[in-house]
Amino acid sequence: MDQAVKEDRHFPVPWMQKAFAGRKALSSVLVAVAFLLLCLYVQGSTGAWVASFDSYPDEAGHFVGAVMVHDYLASGLSSNPSHFARQYYNHYPFFAIGYWPPLFYILTGLWFLAVGVGRFQALLVSAAAAAGMAWMLYGLVRKRAGAVAGFCAGILFLSLPEVQRWVCAVMVDEMVGFFCLAAAVLLLRYLDEPNFRNAIYCGLCCAFATLTKYSGAYVCVLPLAACICLRRFSLLRKPSFLAQYLVMVLLVGPWALWTAKLEAVGLPRMPPPIGRRVGRYLMDLFRIFPPVLVAIVILGLLALIIMPRAWREDLVVISLLCAGCLVFVILAPVAPESRYLLVPCAGLLALSFAGWVAALEPLTRRGPMGARAVPALAAILTLCIAAAYLRNYERPPEYQIRSVVEAIVRDPAWADKRIIVAPDLEGPMIAEFAIEDRHRPGYQLLRPSKLFAEQGWFGEGYMSHFQSSDEMMAYLRLNPVDLIVWRLQSRTPRKVHIRYMDQMLSHYPLAWQKVVSFGSASGALSSWMVYKFVPQ
User: What does pTM read for this prediction?
Assistant: First the structure.
């Protein structure tokens, strides 16, 4: 029985029940705020707010896509959105709305309208989404183990290094995870009260998860799978149940049909075999947890297996959520990555807490001391793990991208010019220009990987357009650019077009004059040059 229902029985007078419900709502809000503050602490203390957009290749694309939506909204919807996007891409060629669904960019773009454009503002969205995931986990665990255990579960989730890594990046995985967990919570509410309001809320969260990233589409099957597994067949005939799927179809259908031609874009032609992906994902799922916590999670899951009386609707829905995510990512033709497993990770925490509650039930029945022992042990364990693993995740290297971009933007002579960005940091540099440029879209930024070569989404089928630095120089004389941003690299081997760029800058010193430099020639991460083209 729901913990809240048990507690409500102690307040038979209506006004006392309302007061208790208000107190519980206030405590829930305070928990959400605490989770958000913890995420902000992790971001601020690890330097995420001032870092470059290089934690993952997609990060810069997500940010620039949100900035484009902001600029389109700020323009007063002055033109056709497709035309605006094409023109924007000619200036800031690093986003892929259409391949990625639009909801993250719409919500983040609206947020930018309220608070301005910047990395800090974008990371507030990541922090809110991750805190929302922890808050949903808190609600799931509280029903079984009480508020203290629920709070501990949320803290443990946010303390995981993999979760912290994506909290400190502008990525969509936290947002899709939040909507997936919210769909599970709202589905449980619908199963308890099958009315149109709960059905529509659940359908909206399922649609929002899919429109954030197609890897969240599995959650759309959750209501049907739950009704079948729980043998709630009567719900399948209710108009309210059908309303959930009507909402999903109306919201997701038009976008899916419009972008169907992009279905195969970004997917590897030769994905790893399914058998290998199964093992990799299962290992990655448990490797997300620290060694001590993984043992505790496994013991909690074993307790659930040997104690079938503990299984009720909430655990069935959570298990289906975890299984659905795993099946989807295993069948999807993409390389295994731990970031796809944030939802199953939260689900395993909820299941393990339920297992421990069932296993320790005899202790809680021995009196007040036994009842207090369980939350006390959970709090001590959480404090130790959080102290050991907060701020403990692998950080990307630091570059001077912002300093280089600021130096260019501050010089009015380079306003709205054609600029070739550094070939090994194309996305992060374009993202910084999107922040610093106050007249977007102004600069016409060019990517060497597109201008001088061609390749597939994952770098396959690479081919240089030129066979020598002289050919490259001849092309640029006919199609001049104003600046080339260059960074000395120690990495070898370099791609053909990058080697030709290096040779061209060395062989034609009169045509390419160095105007700005940062760092020393011995420091690969901090050695930057900006070259100006001087027509001969």
Answer: 0.91
